[in-house]
Structures are given as C-alpha cells and as structure tokens.
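F.,

This is the one I mentioned.
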C-alpha cells in the first residue's frame, strides 16, 4: 500500500482526509422514477458533484433536513408529497437552497406556480444535459453570491449594533457573540456583570438587533422603585385613582408593549415589587391602578444585575421563581481586569471624545503611561477608566497625557484625615483576620466594601466626592452603603 508523503500528511487534519481538497457540491435528486434518478445521478457525478437520491416527497424533505445541500433537482409528481408541497416546506422553513424543477410536465401553469414558489429554473424531460449543467452552474453561482451578501449584511449589522461597545479581546468578543445568538429569539435575558461594565449597552444592542427593534426600549432603574409607588410606576394609573393622580399615567410595562423592558439593577428590587413583576411576566397582563379591566401586553424582558443571587436566595432578598423567569438566557459581561488588552483602545477613544467635546486638538498619551494602564485592575471598570482619562486630560501639561497614580481612584492611598473618626467596629469590619501570622483571604464583596470605606475617608466624608472617586453614581453609592450595612455614613 502506498505511503502518504510528508506534504500530504501535513494536509491531513488528523482525520485521514486531505484538508486542502475543496468540498464537492452536493446535489439532491428527488424523482419517483428509478431510471431518471440513476441517469441524473450519473451525469451529476460526471460534472464533479456528489449525488444524493430521494424517491418521494417525504424522503426528499428528510434529506433536506439531515444534511447541507447546494442544489435540489425536484420532480413535481411524486408519492407522499409532490414537488409543490416540498417547495412550500422550503419556503415555510426559510431554506434558500436553489431548486431546479425537472419534470415530464410542460404545463405552463405548473411552470408559473413553481417559479412563484421560488424555483430557480423549470426544465422538462427529456433533458438536455448541457443545458442542465449550465443551469446548475448558474444556480450555484447565484447561491454563493447571496451567501456572501448575507454574511456582509450580518457583519455590517453587527458593527452597527455594537458600535458603542469597544474592544478586541476574546472576552468581549465572546460576550458579543452570545448576545448575537439570543437576539433573534424572544427569550428573557439576564445580563450579569459588575458596575461600569456596559450592561445597558448590551441590552440596547440585543433589543435593536431583534424583531422588536421597531418597538420601544424602556429602561427602568429597579433600585429606585419603592413598594408604595411600584403599582403606579410599573403598571400605570387612571385619573383620580389616588390623591395626586391628576391625569392618566401609562406604566413602564405598558410603555414597553411590542418592545423590550430593561430592568436594570434587578437584584436591588424590593421583595414585594418582585411578586408584582412576576405576575406580570406570567400573565402577560397588567391592570392600571384604579381600573377594573386588565390589559394584554406583549413585551420582552432584559434585566441586569451585579449581585450574587445565591446569597440573595439564602437571605430571602430575591425570589427564585422570578430569577428563573428572568434568566432564560444568562449573559456575562467581563470586568475590565479580564480584558486588559482593551484598555489602551478604550483610553484613546475616551481621549478623542474629550478632545472633540472641548475643542482641543493633538492630545496624545505618553506611550509608557498608556502601557502602564494594563497593570492596574480597574475596580470601577470602564467608568473608572473614562474618569481617569478625563482627569488626566484636565491636569495635563502640554499636549502629552500622562496617567499618574493620583488619577487612579485618587486619594485611596492617602492617610485618614484626623477629623474623621470612625467607630472601632467600622474599622474592624474591613480588616481581614489573621491565622498564624498570615492574612486570611476575603471575598470580592469585602474588597468592594473596603474600597468604599477608604474612599469615604479620603473624601473627608463627602459622599459626592466618594462616588466620584469610585467612578459610580451617588444613587449607586447609596445602594452599596445599604448593602454593606454602612447606612450611618449617609448622616455623616
């Protein structure tokens, strides 16, 4: 037996088959006449194609379902399902494989019907083989061109949808790919990720890439909805239904009818409000406050959180039944420390935005400084990076920007001002215990709490400055103070 050369072995992908040999186009021949199938199969293979045979409509549809095909040669008169029924199946399932009708019938209405159903060509028996070869070649060429156009359209659509999500790292590309996979479905999406990672940008991309893109995108901050206002805000009210209801109000869910409702910070939603939201999801109906009849609505839910739900379940802060309704498709957005290769790209984008907004030309980063950005862990994620770039641009000397340690969560390493005196229990709560002289590791939540406290000290108890240092909003800071049991700082 002949032995493959080294060059041939290199072209075999461990499978025994050469990977440099182009794949043959596969042609399905569906005809109830055995002689016609054999003759067509002979000529198709002689043309350099692979032939697959079917003797009736059911077998034809099975072949279409089971394997990729490049051309279908289809007879009209077949048992079980005729050629028209096969064409209807292709149309119903959005299968675009080119179909060439090959039949003994030269009936003009039949030909017109086939073309209307999407057939590429209509040929009658006895066949002119040269004519068949030309038609097949043209069908393959047109199909290939359509495929290329579809790929280009998909690529352009992807770039348009994700144009505000910046990055080339594998981590962010994987997240975008998962978002694209769920776009065309109606599944509820739960976006998981730390504050400042861009969860709402992903929610918008999913909405505008979906079949609901022409409907509304309604964003709701769940942490800001108190139980006594939930019914009115979420489901609306009618005029006069309570004191202060001076006119009808359409709630968030009804506003999102035929579109998407984005429930941001869903993990911070009040437990009583969760029950009301669960009912709306299950029933797909809402009732405005003060109104007797229910309204049927059609919506998709995309929610987002930075919380650990396993802990929320244990403490009964979040309903498991609602969680499973929301996370039909979970989507994880990586923090900036998991895609540090994107930091220089993001920094340059933020610098360009700052330059345009302030009419400043020729700003650029010091190369060494830009490189060093990748050595920082960015606890505040993209929001913190943007703040650092802006602060560096404001404090620059000349047109070269240096990212100095002082702009990275500024003041976090400064000493505690003497006028701020915190309870001993407060200080103890942020100090990890030791075992045999070695510090015990502590959780990411403990680190987050530690960072908030340190920023609070450095800002001399000014909560606005504390939020600015951390790269988060004041409302988010308030929620975190509640989360970590630091409520007494609000009064400080």
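My design for it:
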């Amino acid at each position: 037996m002949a032995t493959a050369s080294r060059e041939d072995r290199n072209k075999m992908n461990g499978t025994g088959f050469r990977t440099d040999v182009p794949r043959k186009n596969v042609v399905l021949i569906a005809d109830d006449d055995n002689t016609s199938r054999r003759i067509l199969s002979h000529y198709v293979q002689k043309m350099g194609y692979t032939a697959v045979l079917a003797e009736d409509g059911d077998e034809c549809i099975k072949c279409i379902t089971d394997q990729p095909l490049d051309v279908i040669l289809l007879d009209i008169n077949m048992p079980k399902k005729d050629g028209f029924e096969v064409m209807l199946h292709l149309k119903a399932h959005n299968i675009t494989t080119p179909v060439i009708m090959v039949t003994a019938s030269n009936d003009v209405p039949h030909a017109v019907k086939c073309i209307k159903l999407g057939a590429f060509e209509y040929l009658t028996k006895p066949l002119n083989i040269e004519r068949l070869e030309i038609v097949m070649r043209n069908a393959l060429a047109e199909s290939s061109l359509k495929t290329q156009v579809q790929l280009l359209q998909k690529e352009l659509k992807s770039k348009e949808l994700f144009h505000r999500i910046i990055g080339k790292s594998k981590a962010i590309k994987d997240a975008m790919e998962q978002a694209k996979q769920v776009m065309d479905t109606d599944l509820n999406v739960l976006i998981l990720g730390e504050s400042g990672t861009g969860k709402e940008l992903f929610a918008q991309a999913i909405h505008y890439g979906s079949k609901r893109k022409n409907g509304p995108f309604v964003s709701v901050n769940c942490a800001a909805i108190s139980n006594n206002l939930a019914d009115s805000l979420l489901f609306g009210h009618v005029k006069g239904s309570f004191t202060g209801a001076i006119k009808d109000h359409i709630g968030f869910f009804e506003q999102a009818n035929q579109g998407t409702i984005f429930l941001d910070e869903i993990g911070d939603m009040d437990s009583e409000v969760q029950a009301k939201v669960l009912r709306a999801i299950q029933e797909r109906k809402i009732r405005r406050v003060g109104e007797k009849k229910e309204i049927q609505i059609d919506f998709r839910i995309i929610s987002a959180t930075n919380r650990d739900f396993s802990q929320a379940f244990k403490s009964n802060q979040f309903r498991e039944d609602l969680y499973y309704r929301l996370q039909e498709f979970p989507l994880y957005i990586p923090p900036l420390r998991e895609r540090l290769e994107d930091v220089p790209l993001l920094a340059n984008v933020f610098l360009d935005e700052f330059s345009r907004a302030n009419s400043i030309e020729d700003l650029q980063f010091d190369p060494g400084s830009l490189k060093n950005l990748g050595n920082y862990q960015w606890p505040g994620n993209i929001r913190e990076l943007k703040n650092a770039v802006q602060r560096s641009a404001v404090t620059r000397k000349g047109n070269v920007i240096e990212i100095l340690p002082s702009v990275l969560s500024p003041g976090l390493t400064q000493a505690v001002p003497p006028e701020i005196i915190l309870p001993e229990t407060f200080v103890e709560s942020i100090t990890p215990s030791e075992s045999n002289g070695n510090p015990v590791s502590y959780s990411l939540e403990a680190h987050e709490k530690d960072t908030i406290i340190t920023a609070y000290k450095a800002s001399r108890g000014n909560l606005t400055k504390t939020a600015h240092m951390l790269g988060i909003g004041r409302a988010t800071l308030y929620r975190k103070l509640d989360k970590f049991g630091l409520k007494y700082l609000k009064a400080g």
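The chain has four domains: 20-150, 170-334, 337-407, 424-491.

Talk soon.
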